[in-house]
Design brief:
Blueprint lengths: L2 H10 L4 H8 L3 H11 L4 E5 L2 E5 L13 E4 L4 H4 L13 H4 L10 E4 L2 E10 L3 E8 L5 H18 L2 E2 L4
Parallel strand pairs: 6-7
Antiparallel strand pairs: 1-2, 3-4, 4-5, 5-6
Helix pairs in contact: 1-3, 2-3
Length: 164
């Protein structure tokens, strides 16, 4: 009962009790018991009236970063939480969950925020990566996106192709 909340909040923190209940499928009462069992091993912080749990040493408010991450549609960054407003402007929810049927689009994350979606098409020796940002990317963000696309192409073992 203690191991599941410890692992969840270590891997997903900062996160709320509601996030943990949704993710784990536990009853609220059982989730609270589990959290209490490991509360000395976690850090608790209240922000805007909501209690967040996280591993010790983690800041609830991450430092700003221009690193771009290209995440797949079913990444825990979106799936692991009931309230995604810390990472996604609610105005863009339908863009990453277009059919509202649980099929998430792949996301572009900059500075911890989802700023768009992306698609890839595999060709013989290439992978074509097409971004669809919610708002135009700055020159710095565009260069960071290109670096992320390059890392992805290296990961899949194909060179970057040109989109048409």
């Amino acid at each position: 009962m203690a191991e599941l909340p410890r692992r969840y909040f270590t891997g997903h923190g900062p996160a709320t009790l509601q996030d943990f209940v949704w993710w784990s499928g536990l009853k609220i009462s059982d989730a609270k018991v589990g959290i209490e069992m490991v509360s000395a091993q976690l850090r608790r912080e209240t922000i805007d009236g909501r209690v967040y749990w996280m591993p010790p040493g983690m800041s609830a408010l991450p430092k700003a970063s221009n690193t771009v991450y290209l995440l797949p549609g079913f990444d825990e960054y979106m799936l692991g939480y009931t309230d995604r407003s810390a990472s996604l402007d609610p105005l863009h929810t339908k863009k990453i969950l277009p059919g509202n049927n649980g099929a998430f689009s792949a996301t572009i994350v900059i500075g911890g925020r989802v700023v768009g979606t992306w698609k890839r098409v595999f060709q013989k020796q290439e992978v074509v990566i097409t971004p669809s940002p919610f708002t135009p990317l700055s020159k710095t963000e565009t260069r960071a996106f290109a670096a992320a696309a390059e890392r992805y192409s290296h990961f899949v073992g194909k060179r970057i192709g040109n989109s048409k």
